Amino acid sequence: MISLAIALVLCGPAKGGFWEWFQKNEARLADAAAKNPVAVMGEIQDELEKTEDDLRVELMLDATPSLVITADGNASLFADARRVAGAAPKLKRWKVVALRPRRAWVADLEVEGRKFGIADFSWRELGRATGKIDLELAIRGRTDANAEQVDKAAFLVLDVVLGEADTENKIGVIDFVSKATKAHRPMGELPGVVDTLAQTP
């Protein structure tokens, strides 16, 4: 089971009253999110699923909390996520964001009882045969026993470092290894390389 040990909590159209409900409850949700973000995420997710069962929500708890409408990496749902976020009314206590944005890494990822920091992930470029960057991700602490879960968690790391849209649109094939070489580079250097590619929707 993958869990994020951070206040980065995984969160349509405005049809069915979702945004009406959210606006009515925004102050209560903002106050509660500071104390129990997981419970608030679940409540918002349940309400969204009444009309949008393919989209997910995340919370980013900064000075002003952000409600992220995410397609969870499914490019076919990007337009839906943007449409839903774009339908949000003016809110006093929340920002609304379409798709997971790039953001600073603020804590560890916990996978199968082991914590992984951003320094545990590194990358090297394998090529650009499809116009996207093919990567090899090296993950320190990756074993045969946890490889499946750790490899899945690596996509969350990419979404943090690059943002959801660029991870889907600009990253191609991804291979995973357990040991970095001198050719592997820190994750913080990946956005600069990705940004050299042409802009995509």
What does this structure look like?
This protein is α+β, with helices and mostly antiparallel strands and 201 residues long. It folds into 2 domains: 2-98, no CATH class; 117-194, no CATH class. It is 32% helix and 24% strand. It contains 6 helices and 11 strands. The protein has helices at 18-33, 37-48, 78-86, 147-162, 164-170, 190-194, and strands spanning 2-4, 8-10, 56-60, 66-70, 95-98, 109-111, 114-116, 121-127, 133-139, 171-177, 185-186. Strands 2-3-4-5 form a 4-stranded mixed sheet, covered by helices on one side. Strands 10-9-8-11 form a 4-stranded mixed sheet. The chain has a 3-stranded antiparallel sheet with strand order 1-6-7, covered by helices on one side. Helix 1 packs antiparallel against helix 2 and helix 4 crosses helix 5. The longest helix has 16 residues, at 18-33. The protein is globular, with a radius of gyration of 18 Å. The two termini are 32 Å apart. Mean pLDDT is 89; it is low at 1-16.
